[in-house]
Every structure is written in structure tokens, then in C-alpha cells.
User: Fold this.
Amino acid sequence: MKRVVSPSAQGPGNANSSKRDPSRLVPDPVPNDALSDPGFSQDVIGWQRLHGRHSLPWQNTRDAYRIWLSEIMLQQTQVAAVIPYYLKFLSRFPTVAMLASAPADEVMAHWSGLGYYSRARNLHRCAQQVVALHGGIFPDDPALLAELPGIGRSTAAAIAAFSYGTRAAILDGNVKRVFARVFGVDTYPGEKKTEEQLWRLAVALLPQAAPSSTSLSASLVDVKSALPASEQVPGESGLQARVQAYTQGLMDLGATLCSRSRPACERCPLAGRCVALATGRVAELPVRKPKKATPQKYAVMLVVTDGDAVLLSQRPDSGIWGGLLSLPELDGFNEPEHDAAETAVVRTEREASIARVLAPFGEVAACERLQPFSHGFTHFKLHVVPYRVRLARRVAGIGQTQSVWVSMDKIGNAPLPAPVKKLLLALFGNDDLFATARASASGAV
Ligand code: SF4
Assistant:
């Protein structure tokens, strides 16, 4: 049987919903194969209704723009860290059209500090494509959503489920952990075969069109009517409401009960079917990634000041901190020498390199090595040796370079990587240090 997506489920953000084809069909439920188990989704839904999260800023809406924004921000970032960014971002870019037409710099500045900056670049491109290709309306088909920048299969399913009630399976890191424990999956989830196995489970366990009456408690027969008024949407079917509650329930379970360490199994609705719990392997599952040594990278960064301005360079779009402003760097520095004391030879070579790199911007008057620091990324660790450089004479124009002089009082709002911003604010972030920097630049110190 085919079902029609209700136009009323399209959400307030899709004001031009009349452009959508009202006969658009969501997929039929998959056949009830050997993996399917209606009791699984019923347990998750029942728990979500009573104990799940219902008042996060991106809940109680079917606005696909807001839901998409939250899903992208929540990738690799905790809820508590996302909330202030989400609210600030929405107040500046309240619609997908406003985000699409905003300057890239401004989008990056509003993302600055949230990390994983490729998400922000993809977010901007995605908004532009939604406007250009879909008339400003996010599609309800997960396959179409997954063609947009920055939206993978699981994120596409979450957006479609929360915005339109589309019956689609999610499988983020938290859900993988729940499935690996409940079904005793004892191979690493990052392996292709294991991931395929988890996807098969995720699809098979989705709520079915007609809930089983045998194991379904009376209070769950119509989940929609049991939802708080704020979460009910006129025209939404019982299955759509169940899909939404189930999707949210899986996320909530993984985030709040079935945590990586110390899961609260005594309160878990899946405890009775959990293989890891029954076999004493909760701490072992999911199987961890085989360990590899973390690669180490090294960089020399230059804090170049002139008066109350600091020199910043635009980073290339690809690579770490892509598209953000950052401090100029010396090329070819890849030795782990930052821990060692600076020898006279190293210092002389370094000063010559700094003078060469900064020649387009002015003549170097003095440079001083600052305290090295390290910053951890997912796949490597970056060790930075910063040098404070004072120019004697600044070149008037900096021509075609990707660099810009930024007033120190603008540092707080500039699109800078978090550790660079922290360094600059530590150096120049209060009045005393401002005064010192100005006096130093003018030769008084
Ligand atoms: S019983 Fe424990 S380990 Fe199993 S799914 Fe629930 S919280 Fe996770």
C-alpha cells in the first residue's frame, strides 16, 4: 500500500509548499524479514514517549530547515555545545534562502568555535543548492537529500523522518553502539561488512505500517494521539508519528542511556533483549577500532602586529581549518623540535625565513619565540611554535595576497580556528596587553 505525505507535515519553514507534488509517495515498508521485530520499535517508542527528550530547541517543529541545521551541527558535537550556536545561527539566518544568500565569511564566523569547518562550507553550499534545485524546500526523499553537500545517508534519513515522517533508517555513531550491544555484534562497526550488517538491522527494525497488537501496550496503539499537543501535527499519520518517535528514541537512548562508558542498563527498555548485557560484554561492545599511533604534525605560526592590527591569512578551502582566517605560517616545518630549546643556529635560520615570508608585508624589526602549544584533531595532533613578530615598516598595500590586517578588537568575532583565537586573545585580549602591543609596535617598549 502506498501512502501520501500530508502537505501539512511540510513544516512552517517551507512556505512555498504548494510547489511540492502532493502525490509524492514515501516508500512502502520493507517486507517483514528474518531481522524484523515489531517489539523492538514499540519498546523504543514507549520509552521515548515517557523518558526521551522533548524540549530541545530543534524539536516540536517540522521545519526541515531547522531540523537540517540541527542535524549538521550535532554531527560530532554534543547537544549542550550545539544549543547556543544553533540559536545564534538561526537568529542571523532564519531561512534557508537567507543562509544561501549570505557571504561565506559571515557563515564561517557564525560557525567559528564549533569545529569541523567543512560542515559549515557544506552547509552554505547545501543551502544554495536547496534554493537553486528545490525551490527552497528540502526534499522528503532521503535519496534526494543525500545528494546534497554534507548530508550522508543517516542524516538524510533523520531530516526526512523528523520533517516529513518519512520511514527511513538512521545509523549514527550512537545508534551503532546500541545495535552492536543489543545484537552482540562482535566486529568493528567501521568495517564495511559490519556496517552493512548494521544497516540491514536498522532498516528491518523500523516501525511497520500496522503495529502488532500482540505485544503492543494499549497506550501505544496510536502513538500520535499519545504525543504532547505541541508535538502533534494535523494530517500526520500514526506511522509518521511512530517513525518520528522511534527515530528520536534511538538517538535519545544512545545519547542518554546506552553511553559509551557506564550505560544505565537498569533503566533501558531494551535490557531484556540485549545480548551484551546478557553475556557480560557491555564494556567490550562495540568493538573498538584497532589502535594506530596518532600522527603528529608541526607548524610555525607568526603573530605579526603593526599598531593595533594583526596580520591574518585566508587558509585554502581544503585541509585543516579550510576557509578560515589564521596566522601566517612558515612552509616546510615538519620537525618535532618545538620541545627542544631554540639553538642559535635554529634561531638564525628561523629569523631569515620569517623575514623572507613577511617581505611582502614589511620589514621585520624584532621577533620572539612564544610558548609552544598543541591541538588535537580527530586524526592527528598539531604542535605549534608561535613567533611574535613586530614590523618596523609596514608595506602600504598587500596586493593580491590572501592576507588581511585585522584590528585586535575584532579578533573575538573573526572566523578563526579556536586555538588561534585563544592564543590571540591571550596575547591581546585585555586592555593592558593592548596597550603593551601598541607601545611595543611604536617602539616605546
Ligand atoms: S541494556 Fe545496557 S548495553 Fe544494552 S542497549 Fe540497554 S543500555 Fe545499552
User: Anything to note?
Assistant: The first strand starts at residue 3 and ends at 4. Residues 178, 181-182, 257-258, 263, 265, 268, 270-271, 274, 276-277, 282 surround iron/sulfur cluster (CB under 6 Å). The longest helix spans residues 238-257.
